[in-house]
C-alpha cells in the first residue's frame, strides 16, 4: 500500500437537489465507487451502485462498516492520517467469478466542522495496471534487444579485427571510410606450408582444416604476444607485420622472434603428431602501403616493395628455415644468430645476399 494525500473532494448531501439535478442519483450512477461514512465508527451512511457491486455486504441485521466491507481496510492507519488532516490511498483487488479487478481507494475527510464525514472513492485501475505491465514488459524486451544488439556489435567488431588493425577499424567506424597510409619502417613475415596440397590428410578436409585452424590460432597468439598484427591468411599462407599502424623501432626484432617461435611451435607439434607440418618462412623490412580494399566485403591488405621482397624470401626459403635479405639482417644482426646463404638472384630486386635466421642470442645478465 502507498500513502498519498488525495485532494479533498466535497460531496453534496445525499438527496440534495439543485437546478433539477438530484445529486444522490448522480452519485449512485457514477462508474467509480463512492461511500460516505462516519469518521469514528466507519459506519456507511451512503454508497453508490458501483461500490455495492465491488464490495457486496454480508447478510447482517446491523449497519455495515468500511472495515467489514473492504477486506484489509487499514483502519488504524486511516484514523491517524485523517486526524492529522491528511488523506490515505491504497490499492486492493476484488474478484467476481474468474475476473479480478484492481482498485485504488482514496480516503479523505469531507463535510463541515459540525458534521464531518469520511469520503471514500474507489477507482478501477485494472487497465492502468495492464498498461503499466505492458510498458514494463516492453521495456524489458527493449533492454534485452539492446543487450543482444550490443553483443552482436561486439561480435561483429571481433570479426572485423580479424581482417584489419584496430586503428583502421576505429577510423572506419568514426568516418565511414579509411584512407591508404604509407608506412616506411615495417617488417613483413610470410609463411607457407611445404607440400600442403599433397598431404595425405587432404583426403579428409574436415581434419585438415581443423589442424590448420589449430596452427593458425597458435600463430595468432604468438603474433599478438610480440605486438605484431596478423594481416591475413590465404589458404595455407600466413602474413603478419610489425610497425603498423603504430610505429615500432623494434619491428624487425619483433618479427624475427615471431618467426623463431612459429618454427619452434611446429617442431614441437610435429614431434607429438603423426602428421608433419613443414613450413617455409621469409621476412623483410621496407616501405608498404596499408589500405582497406572492397566496398561490401572488406579486406585489409599491404602493398609495396616490402611485401614483394618478403614474398620472395618465403619463396626461396627452405623447409623449416627462416630467410631474410641483407637490409633486414643489418637491423638485427647483433641480437640473433645467422647462417649466410650467399647471393641469390631475386626477381624484381636483382642479386641479394640472403641469410638463414637460426636463433636469438642469449642476453647477458
Notes on the structure:
It is a single chain. By secondary structure, the protein is an alpha+beta fold. It has helices at residues 23-28, 49-54, 66-69, 75-83, 126-161, 166-175, 205-225, 251-272, 305-316, 326-332, and strands spanning 17-18, 21-22, 33-37, 44-47, 88-96, 99-111, 116-124, 181-193, 229-234, 237-242, 279-293, 299-303, 322-325, 336-346, 350-360. The strands form three sheets. Strands 8, 9, 10, 11, 12, 13, 14 and 15 form an eight-stranded mixed β-sheet that branches. Strands 4-3-7-6-5 form a five-stranded antiparallel β-sheet, sandwiched between helices. Strand 9 (229-234) and strand 10 form a beta hairpin. The model is unreliable at 1-23 (pLDDT under 50).
Mean pLDDT over the residues? 83
Main beta sheet: strand number and arrangement? 8 strands, mixed
Secondary-structure element series: EEHEEHHHEEEHHEHEEHEEHEHEE
Q: What radius of gyration results from the CA coordinates?
A: 42 Å
Overall form: rod-shaped
Q: In which range does the helix fraction lie?
A: 25-40%
- Unreliable stretches, pLDDT < 50, 5 or more residues? 1-23
| Strand count | 15
Percentage beta strand: 25-35%
Give the structural class. alpha+beta
First CA to last CA: what distance? Answer: 75 Å
Number of helices: 10
Amino acid at each position: 500500500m502507498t500513502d498519498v494525500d488525495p485532494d479533498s473532494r466535497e460531496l453534496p448531501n445525499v438527496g440534495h437537489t439543485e437546478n433539477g439535478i438530484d445529486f444522490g442519483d448522480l452519485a449512485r450512477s457514477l462508474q467509480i465507487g463512492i461511500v460516505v461514512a462516519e469518521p469514528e465508527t466507519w459506519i456507511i451512511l451512503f454508497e453508490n451502485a458501483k461500490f455495492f457491486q465491488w464490495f457486496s455486504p454480508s447478510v447482517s441485521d446491523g449497519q455495515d462498516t468500511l472495515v467489514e466491507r473492504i477486506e484489509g481496510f487499514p483502519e488504524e492507519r486511516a484514523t491517524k492520517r485523517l486526524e492529522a488532516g491528511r488523506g490515505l490511498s491504497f490499492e486492493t483487488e476484488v474478484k467476481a467469478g474468474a475476473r479480478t479487478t484492481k482498485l485504488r481507494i482514496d480516503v479523505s475527510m469531507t463535510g463541515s466542522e459540525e458534521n464531518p464525514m469520511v469520503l471514500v472513492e474507489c477507482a478501477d485501475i485494472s487497465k492502468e495496471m495492464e498498461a503499466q505491465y505492458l510498458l514494463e514488459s516492453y521495456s524489458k524486451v527493449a533492454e534485452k534487444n539492446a543487450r543482444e544488439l550490443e553483443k552482436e556489435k561486439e561480435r561483429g567488431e571481433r570479426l572485423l579485427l580479424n581482417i584489419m588493425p584496430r586503428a583502421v577499424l576505429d577510423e572506419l567506424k568514426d568516418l565511414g571510410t579509411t584512407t591508404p597510409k604509407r608506412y616506411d619502417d615495417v617488417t613483413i613475415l610470410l609463411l607457407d606450408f611445404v607440400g600442403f596440397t599433397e598431404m595425405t590428410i587432404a583426403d579428409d578436409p574436415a581434419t585438415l582444416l581443423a589442424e590448420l585452424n589449430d596452427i593458425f590460432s597458435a600463430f595468432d597468439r604468438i603474433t599478438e604476444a610480440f605486438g605484431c598484427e596478423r594481416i591475413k591468411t590465404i589458404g595455407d599462407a600466413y602474413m603478419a607485420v610489425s610497425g603498423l599502424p603504430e610505429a615500432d623501432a623494434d619491428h624487425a626484432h619483433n618479427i624475427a622472434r615471431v618467426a623463431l617461435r612459429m618454427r619452434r611451435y611446429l617442431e614441437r607439434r610435429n614431434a607429438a603428431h603423426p602428421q608433419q607440418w613443414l613450413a617455409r618462412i621469409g621476412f623483410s623490412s621496407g616501405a608498404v602501403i596499408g589500405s582497406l580494399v572492397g566496398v561490401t566485403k572488406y579486406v585489409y591488405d599491404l602493398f609495396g616493395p616490402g611485401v614483394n621482397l618478403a614474398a620472395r624470401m618465403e619463396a626461396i626459403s627452405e623447409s623449416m628455415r627462416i630467410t631474410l635479405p641483407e637490409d633486414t639482417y643489418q637491423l638485427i644482426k647483433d641480437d640473433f644468430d645467422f647462417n649466410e646463404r650467399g647471393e641469390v638472384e631475386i626477381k624484381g630486386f636483382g642479386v641479394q645476399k640472403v641469410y638463414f635466421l637460426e636463433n636469438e642470442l642469449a642476453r647477458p645478465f
